[in-house]
Amino acid sequence: MEVDNEALLEMTWRSPSNIALVKYWGKHGRQLPSNPSISFTLSRAFTETTVLFTPRRDSATPIVKSFLFEGKTNQAFARRIETFLQQITDKLPFLQQLQLDISSVNSFPHSAGIASSASAMSALALCLVEGRQRLKGDSFDLEDTINEVSEFARLGSGSASRSVVAPIGIWGAHPDIPGSSDRYAISFPFELHSSFDNWKDSILLVSDEVKAVSSSAGHQLMKNHPFARTRFKQARANIRRITVAMQQGDIGAFGTIVEEEALTLHGLMMNSRPSFMLLLPETVRIIQSLRRWRRQADVPVYFTLDAGPNVHLLYPSTHADRVLQWMEKELPEYLQSDKIVRDEVGMGPVKV
After folding, report:
1. Residue 68's closest CA among 98, 111, 107, 100?
2. Average pLDDT per block of 10 residues along the chain, 352 residues long
3. What distances in angstroms separate CA 15 from CA 75, 146, 206, one per listed residue?
4. At the topology level of CATH, where does 9-191 sit?
5. What is the pTM of this model?
6. Which CATH number fits domain 198-344: 3.40.640.10, 3.40.50.2300, 3.10.20.30, 3.30.70.890?
């Protein structure tokens, strides 16, 4: 990024994506969740964002002076970020006096079935909150501001709220989760069983096409969904069940819930009005193959899906060799460097 001579401040944050275990689907108000969700924070799938703060000469000019994604101008992203920034000037009024040059790069393919909006908006939120502190002459401590950072990330993308915390994020108020909130995500507030240390996430890229329906549109369809009330009740129950399983080390119960949630998410899409289907034949083939092998080999590896056709395989790192051997035998086409993202549970954002 070319630095302006009048630049006040420049900073870079790297923030990871996350994979939801219990899914958030449906929202209300100002980007508030209709049900709580829980996720693994990833490690190698991240967005690195640099923000250059310069004085704004004219209040009529956009806040976003320039936006580069992967080194290229991207007007669609720039408009989305401009809208986001305009919407949060009531919470961050210092933005009204500034223009921002923003440069963003992903460590993963943009259409890889990884929540790029989660990593991108959380990285931007980190830059904004630290930028405000630095311009005021104050120090910045992520631990002290993490709820605020998560809240600003949420306003840009709901799932981004969870990318700020690690290794497990919970977003959405739940009576059994102390400190939980609809406004921001919190880290897993219980003692995590050692069975859930060092988990892997192998992401199989079935398709790199742009989704037929955006996640934002899908969330909106939950407002009149015939099964909305039942779904929200199910999600709250699954949050309760999965947090207990993760404290007790019950990997089987954990896997059952994770796969149920993945299929429920896509079932809700297929039962929306209008309905839509994002699963592809290859998605189903991978799931069926995995289930057959799991029964035969008794290996704790489970699938989940985001709002797309690509498959996330979750498993303890102690079983990584056996999972790789199975993929080499059953899914060789997904071992190409551009067909699989090998990730793992990580420890959250990093200042660059």
Report:
1. 100
2. 67 97 96 97 96 90 93 89 94 94 89 76 98 95 97 96 98 98 98 98 86 82 95 98 98 98 97 93 96 96 94 97 94 80 96 95
3. 22, 13, 25
4. Ribosomal Protein S5; domain 2 (3.30.230)
5. 0.94
6. 3.30.70.890
